[in-house]
Fold:
Amino acid sequence: MPHTYLTDTQVAARYGVHRTTPWRWAKVDPTFPAPIILTVGTTRWKLADLEAWEAAKHGSAA
Structure:
């Protein structure tokens, strides 16, 4: 099954933040999924990693 990858703009839209925010989160929050370099100049976040991060955050808030 192929993976779905999101751009920084798509990740930002998912969380309602500016497109630079996911980059900052990746630097300062060790629990936030790291972006994956697919090719030179093409960096994306794996949707499955983001969903796992969301589930972990939701679980720790309960």
